[in-house]
Design a protein that fits this description.
single chain, 629 residues, alpha+beta, Heat Shock Protein 90, Ribosomal Protein S5, domain 2, Rossmann fold, 4 domains, nine-stranded mixed beta sheet, five-stranded mixed beta sheet, 21 helices
């Protein structure tokens, strides 16, 4: 072979400083790029052999990664298709863009290393992030091909000479620069290989590992062991998402989950994704046991492209409400060098997003129909996913109506249709609207729940972190349905009927009772009303209107309701005009006695709402002792 020298056809001296500068923050991806190239070359020779286009035995096919700390080199070698000198010229020297001018214009807009590499075909050149000099030693599979060696020192000049490789494949040797010597470390390299190459489809050998193996028996017949050096294969070449679901058992899915997330509880169930039209996608998504704090950070969904790990930032591919799931998604339609701007714009990504939403909905519907009792037992864990999905995705709401559950204070479960059927006959107001009562804390709101139950009303439990938004969503979607917190008003006002009740107080007595309570309370934000309620209801009830409480709760969660969050609290104090205590107040001897009874009744109402604290609670206790003493 005639020695060749030349200049890489990019027409600028600035290309390598640009690569080093812009890719520096992601410089570990050089190993991903070079190992991926080696895997591609290996898969190509397998394909050509299967088509009868590559003669001879393939032999052992693997990719080897090694390093030499003293020589300051990292070597990636394969037994793939190899290259001729002409192919080196074509694929290595002529970078895949039209010229330096275009590059210099476009790189300015690139957001990250992946975008630069992906847009300009610079995968191989990522080697120069960590190397002063790069060598390629290669021999093509083609009959009669000559070995070739390519050397470049990080300038735009290169040299191609005859190589000395005797077997098919390619070896890339990186001469590591002084700033990147951290990569001349076994643990560091193994960590990167595990991150990006744990499931590559070709065995990746990284140095050797020491293992103890049986070596005959000793004089007493006990097994004897010896220590041996074995090839260290870092990857599982056939992860479960590459297999057919019918070939897998539950145990396989659970073992794979442990492999991905060693410190997590077992998942509730999983969905095996497999589609080849109109895009290619495989994967397994697991429903974990979700705690209410909605921990999205620790165990993320991992995105792969042809079994190469890309990222665990999958926001645009997976619908936001399913970011709570765990598992893997693999799609060759998403390029290895993916960028955020690509994900946001790509039509396949949007189709994948819709497909995953549909598959999750179908799986939940199937579980519900197949074994409702088991589904109900899991509802505490999966309810958060379902509600979040119904709030954020219109199509998911439509499907979710079939398997979303409402739970009441007695621990019973209902679909939307079942609950409407249960409560509509009793809990429809005079306007024809079905009123669903709910509690956020059954223990604290027990008095209100009992009051509702005494009238034959049912009370739902709505205490998850997103129930405020879910309640609002239900009112928008369900026809002629309103949701009211069980302590948002006196029961007669929560579900107003045609029948009207009057209280026994005269107009003068009502005015007198109102003035007594206003004076005893002494707070303008507590608005006193005399109500005509059943004698069995509490004498005093303190409530905040449903809309005001809801807006304030949403403001606390950052729901864009900041204005309401800043409004002063305003409460309604309902005095039951038909309760015997009101008559006792009117008949008490002297203003001080009247005020003391009124204050005690008001404090009891606060106590039932968990609103009596500090000095007011102490005063109430002392007053109670005096009254019964």
């Amino acid at each position: 072979m005639q020695q060749q020298k030349g200049t890489i056809s990019i027409h600028t001296e600035n290309i390598f400083p640009i690569i080093k500068k812009f890719l520096y923050s992601d410089h570990e991806i050089f190993l991903r790029e070079l190992v991926s190239n080696a895997v591609d070359a290996t898969q190509k020779i397998k394909r050509l052999s299967s088509l009868g286009q590559a003669a001879g035995e393939l032999g052992e096919l693997k990719v080897s990664v090694s390093f030499d700390k003293e020589a300051k080199t990292i070597t990636i070698s394969d037994r793939g298709i190899g290259m001729t000198a002409e192919e080196i010229q074509k694929y290595i020297n002529q970078i895949a863009f039209s010229g330096a001018t275009e590059f210099m214009e476009k790189f300015k807009e690139a957001k990250d290393a992946n975008e630069i590499i992906g847009r300009f075909g610079l995968g191989f050149y990522s080697a120069f992030m960590v190397a002063d000099k790069v060598e390629i030693n290669t021999l093509s599979y083609q009959p009669g091909a000559e070995p070739a060696r390519w050397i470049c020192d990080g300038s735009t000049e290169y040299e191609i000479t005859e190589g000395d490789r005797t077997d098919r494949g390619t070896e890339v040797i990186l001469h590591i620069n002084s700033e990147s010597e951290e990569f001349l470390d076994k643990h560091k390299l193994e960590e990167i290989l595990n991150k990006y190459g744990k499931f590559l489809p070709v065995p990746i050998e990284f140095m050797t590992k020491t293992e103890s193996v049986e070596d005959g028996e000793d004089e007493e017949g006990k097994p004897r062991y010896k220590t041996v050096e074995l090839p260290n294969i870092i990857n599982n070449t056939t992860p479960i998402w590459t297999k057919t679901p019918s070939d897998l058992k539950d145990e396989d899915y659970l073992n794979f989950y442990k492999e991905l997330y060693p410190f997590s509880e077992e998942p509730l169930f999983w969905i095996h994704l497999n589609v080849d039209y109109p895009f290619n996608l495989t994967g397994v998504l697991y429903f974990p046991k979700v705690k209410n704090e909605m921990d999205l950070q620790r165990n993320k969904i991992k995105l792969f492209s042809r079994q190469v790990f890309i990222t665990d930032e999958v926001k645009d591919i997976v619908p936001e409400f399913l970011m709570l799931l765990h598992g893997v998604i693999d799609s060759p339609d998403i390029p290895l060098n993916v960028s955020r701007s690509f994900l946001q714009a790509d039509s396949n990504v949007k189709k994948i997003n819709s497909y995953i939403t549909r598959k999750v909905a179908d799986k939940l519907a199937e579980l519900f129909k197949k074994d409702r009792k088991a589904y109900e037992e899991k509802w505490n864990d999966i309810g958060l996913f379902v509600k979040y999905g119904m709030i954020s995705e219109e199509k998911f709401f439509e499907k979710g109506k079939e398997f979303a559950l409402l739970t009441n204070t007695k621990g019973e479960f209902f679909t939307f249709d079942e609950y409407k059927e249960k409560v509509a006959p009793v809990q429809t107001d005079k306007e024809g609207t079905a009123v669903y009562l709910y509690s956020v804390d059954a223990a604290k709101q027990d008095a209100f729940i009992q009051s509702a139950n005494n009238r034959g009303y049912d009370v739902l439990v709505m205490n998850s972190p997103i129930d405020n938004h879910f309640i609002h969503n239900l009112e928008l979607k369900l026809e002629k349905t309103s949701l009211k917190r069980v302590d948002a008003d006196v029961m007669d006002k929560l579900i107003e009927k045609d029948e009207s009740r009057s209280h026994v107080l005269s107009e003068e007595e009502s005015k007198q009772v109102k003035e007594i309570f206003e004076k005893a309370i002494g707070k303008p934000e507590m608005q006193v009303h005399i109500e005509a309620l059943s004698p069995d209801e509490l004498p005093v009830t303190v409530t905040m209107e449903e809309w005001m409480r809801r807006m304030k709760d949403m403001a606390k969660m950052g729901g864009g309701m900041g204005f309401y969050g800043n409004l002063p609290d305003s409460y309604k104090v309902a005095i039951n005009g038909n309760h015997k205590l009101v008559n006792r107040i009117l008949q008490a001897d002297g203003e001080a006695a009247k005020l003391e009874i009124a204050k005690q009744a008001y404090d009891l109402a606060l106590l039932s709402q968990g609103m009596l604290t500090g000095a007011d609670l102490t005063a109430f206790v002392n007053r109670s002792v005096n009254m019964i003493g």
